[in-house]
Write a structure and sequence with these properties.
There is one protein chain. This protein is an alpha+beta fold. It has 2 domains: 91 residues, Hypothetical protein yqbg (Orthogonal Bundle); 72 residues, Immunoglobulin-like, CATH 2.60.40. The chain contains 4 helices and 6 strands. A 3-stranded antiparallel sheet has the order 1-6-3, with no helix packed on it. Strands 2-5-4 form a 3-stranded antiparallel sheet, with no helix packed on it. It is elongated, with a radius of gyration of 21 Å.
Length: 177
């Protein structure tokens, strides 16, 4: 979780240990919902994407964002590593591929791109503003839940225009930019 239980309970002004499970469920639900709404990925470790390149420059936009590192780019068939330059932004990985072949002779080479994406699940690299938006959502969900439970809670109702505006700087989903 990008915000820990202790911090969240302090924000909610809750001291009862009996609420720990409910608060944890709401934190995880809101974090997942943020990911769905914005394209922000919360994850530890590396991910891979496959890029087809028929020579020249290649721009790859993987599904998992933001991109924070590129570990390696290698031939998907024989694991030969790309030694040419490559660069990345939060949304794209760009590289140059001169060799063009594949096992079918079609002139296209498949590259496996290993990259780090998203924010760590422990929240160490997550922007403070994004953590605050999550706390605001947890607050709304906790204090406005029906009949004191988290069952059948429609989290969509907490994504107000105000919350969406706060998420905009962190969003990779162009629909809310």
């Amino acid at each position: 979780m990008i915000v820990d239980l202790t911090t969240t309970k302090q924000f909610l002004q809750i001291i009862a240990p009996s609420e720990d499970t409910l608060v944890t469920i709401i934190i995880e639900s809101m974090q997942n919902f943020i990911a769905q709404k914005t394209g922000i990925y919360f994850h530890d470790g590396d991910d891979t994407a496959i890029a087809n390149c028929d020579g020249g420059n290649k721009s790859l936009r993987p599904q998992l964002l933001p991109i924070n590192s590129v570990t390696k780019i290698e031939d998907n068939y024989d694991d030969t590593e790309l030694t040419e330059d490559f660069i990345h932004t939060e949304m794209r990985i760009e590289f140059k591929c001169n060799s063009t072949y594949d096992s079918f002779g079609s002139g296209t080479k498949r590259w496996k791109v290993t990259y780090g994406a998203g924010y760590n699940t422990d929240g160490t690299d997550c922007p403070a503003g994004l953590k605050q938006v999550l706390l605001d959502l947890v607050y709304e969900a906790y204090w406005n839940r029906p009949n004191g439970s988290s069952n059948n809670l429609d989290y969509e109702q907490f994504f107000t225009a105000k919350i969406m505006k706060k998420l905009r700087p962190y969003s990779f989903d162009l629909r809310i930019r």
